């Protein structure tokens, strides 16, 4: 599924981010612990590496992700050059968030005090929970929070009580999602606007993925005895179990899809991670499609 979802404000935000990258000492990227690779912005990786900025990866929503794979992904990110990583959500979320500025200063120890405060650009794809983390960090509501992507639309400069400076960027996707499964996972997590994908298509992907990776959770949630059936039949079984039935006993496939997506996003299905580092070895890129020439030129200047 090729997804091209790049609203106008993201184009402006991309330019703001490029300017801010020159001012900061490190990049904080908030990713979704349920899809750590798919929710990592490759455009930002390219920019920060070109500027030789270290990264702090925050695996947010860790309480919704598979506990065993949380550790696997944490170790994988820490094995990447210039990268530190932490989990947020498994324990005391507020306490863990409050410790983030201290961790940032350890990553850039040459930036200390009021004269040379640590400066960080905090980023994340839409709906990854970045605004909530900022509000906890500041103990006040400074960033808008919503369950739909694209709420924050302008770069904000924020000074923390200890003098550290944060540049808060809008939730930023990239113009072309390169891998089909990445597109499905982002849509399943709610990080892409609903007008950019078909909900039934994404729900079918979800059921197929869960049957392969978390069969027991799928059985338990929808009270299924047997998963060894055709995918279409399995989808219909779920719809019937959840009461998504039209007159004449017909399955309401749209309603079934909405229920499956809601169950995943809310964590009702259980703690699930949609990908592992091993999955990165078998990625097949989608066919090339036209990309914004201004973006291509901007990225090329950073090589």
Question: What general outline do the C-alpha atoms trace?
Answer: elongated
Q: Report the span from N to C terminus.
A: 29 Å
Radius of gyration: 20 Å
> What would you call the structural class?
alpha/beta
Low-confidence stretches: 145-152, 295-303
Largest sheet: 6 strands, mixed
Identify the CATH class of the largest domain. Answer: Alpha Beta
Q: Look at the structure and give the mean pLDDT.
A: 85
Number of H/I helices: 12
Kindly report the spatial arrangement of strands forming the biggest sheet: 3-2-1-4-6-5
Helix content range: 40-55%
Order of helices and strands: HEHEHEHHEHEEHHHHHH
Number of strands: 6
Percentage of residues in DSSP E strands: 5-15%
How many independent structural domains? 2
Q: Spell out the CATH superfamily of the largest domain.
A: P-loop containing nucleotide triphosphate hydrolases
């Amino acid at each position: 599924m090729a997804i091209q979802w790049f609203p106008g404000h993201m184009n402006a935000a991309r330019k703001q981010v490029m300017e801010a990258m020159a001012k900061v000492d490190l990049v904080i990227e908030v990713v979704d612990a349920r899809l750590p690779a798919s929710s990592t912005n490759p455009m930002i990786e390219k920019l920060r590496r070109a500027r030789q900025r270290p990264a702090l990866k925050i695996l947010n929503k860790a309480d919704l992700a598979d506990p065993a794979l949380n550790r696997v992904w944490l170790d994988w990110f820490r094995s990447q050059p210039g990268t530190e990583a932490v989990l947020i959500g498994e324990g005391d979320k507020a306490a863990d968030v409050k410790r983030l500025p201290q961790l940032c200063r350890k990553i850039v120890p040459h930036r200390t005090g009021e004269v040379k405060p640590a400066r960080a650009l905090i980023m994340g794809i839409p709906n990854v929970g970045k605004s909530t983390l900022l509000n906890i960090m500041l103990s006040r509501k400074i960033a808008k929070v919503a369950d739909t992507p694209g709420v924050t639309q302008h770069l904000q400069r924020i000074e923390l009580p200890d003098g550290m400076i944060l540049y808060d960027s809008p939730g930023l996707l990239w113009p072309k999602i390169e891998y089909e499964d990445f597109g499905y996972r982002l849509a399943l997590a709610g990080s892409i606007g609903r007008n950019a994908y078909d909900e039934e298509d994404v729900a079918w992907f979800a059921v197929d993925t869960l049957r392969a990776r978390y069969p027991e959770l799928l059985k338990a949630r929808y009270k299924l005895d047997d998963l060894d059936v055709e995918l279409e039949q399995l989808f219909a079984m779920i719809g019937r179990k959840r009461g998504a039935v039209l007159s004449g006993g017909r399955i309401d496939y749209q309603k079934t899809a909405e229920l499956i997506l809601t169950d995943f996003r809310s964590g009702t299905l259980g703690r699930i991670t949609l990908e592992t580092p091993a999955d990165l070895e078998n990625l097949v890129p989608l066919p090339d499609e036209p990309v914004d020439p201004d973006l291509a030129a901007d990225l090329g200047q950073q090589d």
